[in-house]
Amino acid sequence: MTKASKKKSSGSKYAVLILTAVIAIVAIGCGLFYATSNSKKGTGQTGAGWNSHRQFTLVNLHLSAGFFNLNILFAVIVFKMEPLDRSAMSEGAATIRTDLSAAEKLSLTRRALNSLPGVMGVNNHQGSKATADKETMRIVLQELRRQKLFFVDSRTNSASVARNMAQQLGVSTARNDIFLDNSSDVQAIRQQIYKAFAMAEKNGSVIAICHARPNTAKCWEMYAAEFKRTGITFVPVTELLY
Predict the structure, then answer these.
(1) Which of 165, 168, 198, 150 is nearest to 26 (CA)?
(2) What is the pLDDT of residue 162?
C-alpha cells in the first residue's frame, strides 16, 4: 500500500502494500507492514495457508527489507469482504457479506481481529459490494473505532463509502490509488510503478497495491536501483492516514 507525499526537501513519499491470498506484506520505507487473512478459504478457520505461502513470503520479506531499508514491523488484517459478483467471492463463509445480520457482521469482524494479536489496522480483500454498503461499513468501522484501529480501503469500487464513513466515525483511514500488478508481465508492472511515481509527484502522495507474486517480486528486484534513483521516499502507511 503506497501513499506518497511530495516534499521538496526529501522528494515524494511512497508506501507499497504487497498482498498474497493469505499473507500480505507491505513494504513501506521505514517500516514493514504485513497482514494475514482472517480465515481459511471457504471456512471460518484462521491461520490457513501459512505453511504453503511461508517460503515465498519470506523471500519477499527479505527483498522488501533490503530494498526499502525497513526497521518497523506492524500487523494489519486483510478482511474478506463481499464483491459485486458473488460468483467471484473467494472466501465463502469467512466473507463479510451485505446480506448477513448485523450480529453476524460484527461477529466476523471481531473473529478476524482476534485472530491476529497486536493488529494495528485493516485492509479489505475484494469488497466492491460491501465497501459500498453503508450499513455493513458502519458495523465494521464502529468496531475498528472501539479497538482504535485504522482502515485502508483497497478501493475495488469507486462508489466505496469506506473512507468518508471512516472519517465521519473518527477512524483513521486511507485508500488505494492504483493496483500495480493486475497484469503479471514484468514490464507492465514496471510501467504501473512509474505511473504511481508520477501520481506521487503530481499529487504529493500515492497509495499503491501489488501482490506477492513471482513476477511482481522479480520486477522490484530487477529495477530496484532504477527505482531508487527517482528520489521517491518510502514511508509507513501510518504516516499517511487521514
Answers:
(1) 150
(2) 96
- Tens digit of pLDDT for each residue in 106-145? 999 999 888 877 888 898 989 999 999 999 999 999 999 9
pLDDT of residue 173 exceeding 70: yes
CA atoms within 13 A on the CB side of 63: 23
Among all chains, which residue has been given the C-alpha cell 463479510? Answer: 96
Instruction: Please give the Cα distance from 236 to 148 (Å, whole number).
Output: 18
Q: Which of 80, 7, 65 is nearest to 231 (CA)?
A: 7
pTM of this structure:
0.75
- Map 142-207 to HEC letters: HHHHHCCCEEEECCCCCCCCHHHHHHHHCCCEEECCEECCCCCCHHHHHHHHHHHHHHHHHHCCCE
